Amino acid sequence: MNQIPVIEQLADALRCLPGVGPKTAQRMVLHLLEHDRAGGRRLSGRLLEAMDKVVHCELCRNFTESPRCAICSNAGRDHSMICIVENPADVIAIEHTAGYQGGYFVLMGTLSPLDGIGPEEIGVAQLLRRCEAGVTEVILAIGSTVEGEATAHYLAESLKPLKVKVSRIAHGIPLGGELEFVDGGTLSHALAGRKQI
After folding, report:
1. Is the pTM of this model over 0.70?
2. 77-192, what's its fold?
């Protein structure tokens, strides 16, 4: 880049973000320096604060600033039901629907032996302990990737001895979607997951 070292270092640091390559990082740095130094200082302060204060909830593993997140602390929610998701973004997506009032368990990924991610890394032992403490229903809201399917199967098998009801969210045709534009895999999932009306 042939720039001032601190600019190069900042651009390199920004590349840790998903989708940010060398050119995008350079544009971000130059924008902050040329047009919004106050915004850059505010960004650095909030980033430091988040890195220091945000931890994982002791029950669901979602992000929080206290030992238990707002969802796990909410007495108005049905804590006998938990929805298992891959990451905190999935919790946000489900919460935006306003149609679910149970608890969550965030895996922080999926099983991937090639990447060294096994049951310990996704918190299976913690999940099983939580289910033993009064959970009666588990909803698997895990993506339908190869890793997601393997993770869902592993979790369903692990939960069988606990006699909890285990279900999986439906996969298939989006609302308003037309069959001619749906790929074969999605259509196959939709047919397999059909329900009586």
Report:
1. yes
2. Dna Topoisomerase Vi A Subunit; Chain: A, domain 2 (3.40.1360)
